[in-house]
Amino acid sequence: MENFDESKTKQNLARAFAGECQDGARYQFLATLAQDEGYFYMQTIFKTHAKNEMAHAKKFYDFLADNCSVKQKNIEICGGYPFTKGTLLESIKDTMGAELSQSENVYPDFARVAEDEGYKDIAKSFLFAGSVENCHKLMLEQLYEKLKGNKLYKSPTPIKWKCSNCGFEHTDKKAWDFCPSCDKPQGYVEIPIDMNSGS
Ligand SMILES: [Fe+2]
Ligand SMILES: [Fe+2]
Predict the structure, then answer these.
(1) Other C-beta atoms within 10 Å of 89: how many?
(2) What CA dihedral angle connects 21, 26, 30 and 35, to 10 degrees?
(3) Which of the two residues, 78 and 30, has the higher pLDDT score?
(4) What separation in Å is there between the alpha carbon of 65 and the centre of ligand 2?
(5) What are the φ/ψ torsions at residue 170 (nearest 5 degrees)?
(6) pTM higher than 0.85 for the full model?
(7) Which of 134, 177, 186, 196 has the fewest C-beta atoms under 10 angstroms from its C-beta?
(8) What is the pLDDT of residues 91-121, one digit of tens each?
(9) Measured in angstroms, how far is the CA atom of residue 184 from the centroid of ligand 1?
């Protein structure tokens, strides 16, 4: 096993930690964008993703804390990060691209290096994070397609719609404008997501 302080895995953990913190922040920004446009249920999805990213950040930070042999005051990293500015729809698309790159390239690469350097647990946690980023990507893909096609609250066949505020349910081809039970607007209706579709 490499000396951890000199290993590539330490650098990758530090980069992953910084990246996950930024992902968490970006999902919070996305949640605010969704809220501003009245998509309150979508806002809760993005807040959940933000929480997931912070959990990844914590895991990577703990690995650094547990493995660095010297009491370090500072870790230097060098890296770029995605920087974009746009509408809710554009931001969802950009985030989708970032999740794709993490799940298909970044984390599998980090896992391979960790495995080669003898850090099996760390390799596993990179792969676990990558699998979550893939789920995030699948969710974003569906939200993107539905939002783009103005189909968030429409279905070709009658389906069950559920108010995320009061739990009221009703089967129809489209969701109500205001919940008949609690009067909350359509943005509170749960968006039907099929996580088994797509890539
Ligand atoms: Fe993450
Ligand atoms: Fe993610």
Answers:
(1) 14
(2) 60
(3) 30
(4) 23
(5) -155, 140
(6) yes
(7) 196
(8) 999 999 999 999 999 999 999 999 999 999 9
(9) 32
